Every structure is written in structure tokens, then in C-alpha cells.
Amino acid sequence: MGNSGSEPGYGEPGDSEPGDSGQGGSGPRDSGPGQLRLRPPVHRVHRTAVTWWRARILLAGAAAVAVPAVTALLLPDVVRPWLVVPAVGLAVVTVVAAVGMPPWWYRVHRWEVTGDAVYTRTGALWQEWRVAPMSRIQTVDSDRGPLEQFFGLATVTVTTASARGALRIPGLDHALAAELVHELTETTQATPGDAT
Question: What pTM, to 2 d.p., does this model score?
């Protein structure tokens, strides 16, 4: 599996950062063999991730709204306004978050795999950029929660010998995630290093 932008699930035209070539690999953007630098990853997560994130926010918000709403129905009329107002406030915050956050996350979340490393960028207000050299990768896993299964998505987790913990690439197409796990497993097995 190469890193060309034409493969399914990889970035589409226009998905590159300004100044990026839009191609994967460790070309001129890396310092040279054995020298990695933190740089913007090329590929976006799958577009369906926006709907997945939105569903997660709405489900969590519905659960948070249900508690004061149901409690208000069970308690006397005098207490209801004290519970209905927070329930309405939570509902408004949930809708605003469900509308605004997933498109922003889609814009920010990026990933890339080269022959030398795995690059990720995640976050919202506080963004985290990470690079994991192949020689430091210990395990590669794919997991799919119930909502991810429903939307045909998966999360790839790359465990490294880093105090920062594993790198996670959420919102990938399930087939691409399986292919990526296979590719990373083969590459790390063929890469010299102690992964410690």
C-alpha cells in the first residue's frame, strides 16, 4: 500500500496543508535517512467520521439531558424549573457542539504513514502533533466500537515505547484500517530497532 492520494480513504484533492506536496513518503519534508521531523500529516480521516462524531455528541448529550428531565417529571412542580432550565441548557450546548465540533475535528485530524514513521495530528482547541518512528512501534491494533461499526469506521492504535502513550488514528474506513494495521505490522517487523 503506497501513500498516493488516489487510494480509497486517503486524502482527496485539496486535502493537503498549504505548502504540502500532497504526497506521502519521506521526501524533502524529512531531514534525511534516520532523521525525522514533526510535520503536518497529509491524509484526512474518512468523511463519515463527521457523522460518527456528531452521533457520539448527541448520544452523550441526550443521556445528560435525560437525567434532569426525567427527575423533573418525578418531583413536585415547585422543583421542576430548577431541573428543566439545566436540561434545556444542556440540550442547547449539545446541539451547538454537535453542529460545530465535528467539522472542525475533520479539518484538524490528519494522519500519514511513511516507510520511516507514523504521523498524527489530533485535537480541537489544543492540538497534538506526534511522530512515531517505525523502530519505536511495539503493537498496532484496530478497534471498532458499536457506533464505529454502524458507520463502517475503525480506530487504529499504534503503541510505542513513548511516555506519551499510543498514537490513535480515529475515523478511518474499516477496510483501510485493516490494511493499515497489516502494512504497519509488516513494516515494523522488518524495521531494525528495539522498540523500547
Answer: 0.75
Statement: residue 73 has pLDDT above 90: no
What string of DSSP letters covers 38-95? -----EEPPTHHHHHHHHHHHHHHHHHHHHHHHHHHHS-TTTHHHHHHHHHHHHHHHH
Domain tally, the chain: 2
Count CB-CB contacts under 10 A for residue 87: 19
23 by DSSP, 3-state: which? coil
Q: In what order do the strands lie in the sheet with 110-113?
A: 43-44, 110-113, 117-123, 127-133
| Same domain, residue pair 124 and 167 | yes
Q: Which domain holds residue 68?
A: 50-104
Residue 5 placed within a domain: no
Residues 132 and 180 reside in one and the same domain = yes
The predicted pLDDT at position 96 comes to 97
Residue 173 in contact with residue 148, Cβ under 8 Å?
Answer: no
Cell triple for residue 155? 480506530
